[in-house]
Amino acid sequence: MTEYLYFTAKWCKPCQQLAPIMEQVSNSVPVKKIDIDENPQITSQWNVRGVPTVILTDGGVEINRYVGVKPLGTYLAV
Question: Catalytic: which of 9, 15, 34, 55?
């Protein structure tokens, strides 16, 4: 199953900009929102070094990774 892992933080301004975009993406592709402060083990497991980071996965395998805020079309072109 293809899904996005959306690594974010409450204090992150770019994450706040990306939130409505990921909300729109979730209408087409499942999005799992992961707060890095509340889930440090998962964040480390996926080797996330900065937020926002969005990882496209298929069956738990990383397909693509986006760091920073990208346009809506970037995430929908899967």
Answer: 15
Q: Catalytic residue among 4, 6, 7, 12, which?
A: 12
Q: Is 12 in the active site?
A: yes
15 is catalytic: yes
Residues 6+ apart with CB under 8 A from 51: 7, 8, 9, 12, 14, 15, 36
The model carries a pTM of: 0.95
The whole domain housing 10 covers 2-76
How would residue 50 be classed by pLDDT, with cut points 50, 70 and 90?
very high
Q: Output the domain CATH number for residue 66.
A: 3.40.30.10
